[in-house]
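User: Hey, quick favor. My workstation is busy. Could you predict this chain's structure for me?
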Amino acid sequence: MDHQSHLKMLINLASIDGEVSDNEKKYILTIGKANGVEEHDVHPLFKNFHDINLPVNLSDDKKFDYIFSLVQLMKIDERLYKEEIRYCSRVAARLGYDQDVVFDLMTQVKSVAMEKDEINALRDLTMKFLKTS
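Assistant: No problem, here it is.
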């Protein structure tokens, strides 16, 4: 699995407003660590804007993980910018979702840790937005 592509998408989103907050950076580093990417490998990624390069053949669960983490990151600084929403919608479309998935998730994803059953309910909810090939 290409965890760097996930981290690069998160960094792009965090950078959209011109500043990566400490909470955003901490969230991204935590995602990296959870996926076996060391902090020293993540820090240099903050210096650039990255192309959206999604791994091929992502499972539905991995697609959900990507979109869920993007929406949660967007909500961390408690300010929503139009450009952040547009970016998340573009990524959602590239993942195979109807772009409206972002709006549904924005109303239900919390900026703090969520319980496993809450996340699983959101995973089920997003399936209706996933387009079949």
